[in-house]
Write a structure and sequence with these properties.
By secondary structure, the chain is α+β, with helices and mostly antiparallel strands. About 30% of the residues lie in helices and about 25% in strands. Strand 17 and strand 18 form a beta hairpin. The chain is elongated. The structure holds flavin-adenine dinucleotide.
């Protein structure tokens, strides 16, 4: 089989890269082993314009977020499914200090934050002592609909191989050869697997473990995402909610912890006034990077080997934009943003091979 591109992974990164290459009428094959705990399969899908305790605007917000909105809406229309919903965050302040810090941002007229006009509006569902603010616009990507729908499309077009990619079978020269497949380039969109891949393992990956609970809480109003230490996110199945998360930089296994379960259950018992039932406790490894910027582009010594990875905690926001940049780079030779281009690590990557 002769194709233009071989893509490894159909998480949110591989989904968007294959989507944009499809638009460019390029031939490709995606190999994906459908790992059920891949972060793309357990994430809440939040697209949040602010980050951190100070609620500062996320990196490249003004470019990346409008692009992501347009891309998700377009893909949703083409697949005839809803892939995006606006769900602004109601931020219940856990302390007077947090309230003060939020209100200071409101006074500074910071984008995306505002005080919520009816402070008592949520008292029938939640316990909260220090008021609440609103972060908007915030969106959730319905990953549970989008990823399977795109996968189905790939299968219909004979563009998906459902198996584990075995790097020992890869031969790299001007083109690449994998089993009976010859391609101009291979692009790794395989999340944490790239951190142990011989071509890219020296990139400064900083894998990060995150846990979440799924709960049934049919009496909660699904109009918003709610936040109080953790996020409580309405899912597309009515009555089902996502609760999380934590961020562990050091871990010796990939299993969910009793500590997270107990802490989150306690938080929910204090916070919610409505009944809830915990149904799942899952855990995934975010493909995060030390300097919190993605890895996009091609190996300096092996231009046939590329990567779209390092999406960290923000794959839903970043993946459409950088997949499009990578596709434009491949097809139209356009530049990749220098903060994301793996070229910034060309010395390290060259050392890897010699
Ligand atoms: C608990 C949690 C909550 C999160 N919440 C959010 C959120 O609200 N918003 C947000 O934007 N981000 C969130 N994230 C981060 C987000 O999930 C990631 O940034 C994003 O999913 C990374 O996508 P990816 O496609 O690059 O990698 P992955 O999701 O890891 O996908 C990689 C794909 O490659 C496949 N694969 C890997 N190795 C192989 C192999 N050898 N052979 C074949 N296939 C292979 C896997 O099966 C998988 O399908 C969260 C993460 C976690 C863990």
């Amino acid at each position: 089989m002769q194709i233009d591109y071989l893509i490894i992974g159909q998480g949110i990164s591989g989904t968007w890269l294959s989507y944009f290459l499809q638009k460019e009428k390029k031939s490709f094959l995606v190999i994906d082993n459908h790992y059920s705990l891949a972060p793309s399969r357990i994430a809440a899908g939040i697209i949040n314009p602010v980050t951190g305790r100070r609620h500062v605007e996320v990196w490249m917000a003004k470019e990346i977020l409008p692009f992501a909105m347009g891309a998700y809406l377009q893909m949703g229309n083409e697949l005839a499914i809803t892939v995006l919903s606006q769900k602004n965050i109601i931020d219940f302040f856990p302390s007077p200090q947090m309230r003060q810090s939020f209100m200071q941002r409101v006074d500074e007229k910071a984008d995306y934050v505002s005080s919520y006009p009816e402070q008592n509006h949520f008292l029938n569902q939640f316990n909260y002592d220090f008021g609440c603010g609103e972060i908007k616009p915030v969106y959730t990507v319905h990953l549970d609909s989008l990823l399977p729908a795109w996968r189905k499309q790939l299968i219909v077009n004979d563009q998906l191989l459902e198996e584990k990619f075995d790097i020992t079978q890869l031969k790299v020269a001007d083109k690449i050869q994998y089993k009976n497949i010859t391609a101009d380039k291979i692009i790794f969109c395989d999340g944490k697997s790239s951190a142990t891949n011989s071509y890219f393992s020296l990139l400064p990956f900083a894998p990060n473990k995150g846990e979440m609970l799924l709960i049934d809480a049919p009496d909660l109003s699904p109009t918003h995402i709610y936040k109080k230490g953790m996020m409580l996110v309405p899912l597309s199945t009515p009555g089902q909610w996502w609760v999380g998360s934590n961020y562990a930089w050091e871990f010796d296994n990939e299993n969910p912890t009793e500590e997270f379960y107990t802490k989150t259950e306690q938080l929910l018992k204090h916070w919610l006034k409505v009944p809830f039932k915990i149904t799942h406790h899952l855990c995934g490894i975010r493909p995060a990077t030390l300097e919190r910027r993605p890895f996009v582009g091609f190996h300096p010594l092996h231009p046939a080997v590329g990567i779209l990875n390092g999406m960290g905690t923000k794959g839903c926001s970043l993946a459409p934009f950088f997949a499009k940049q990578l596709a434009n780079h491949l097809v139209h030779n356009e530049p990749i943003n220098s903060e994301a281009d793996v070229n910034r690590f060309s010395k390290i990557l060259s050392r890897n091979i010699s």
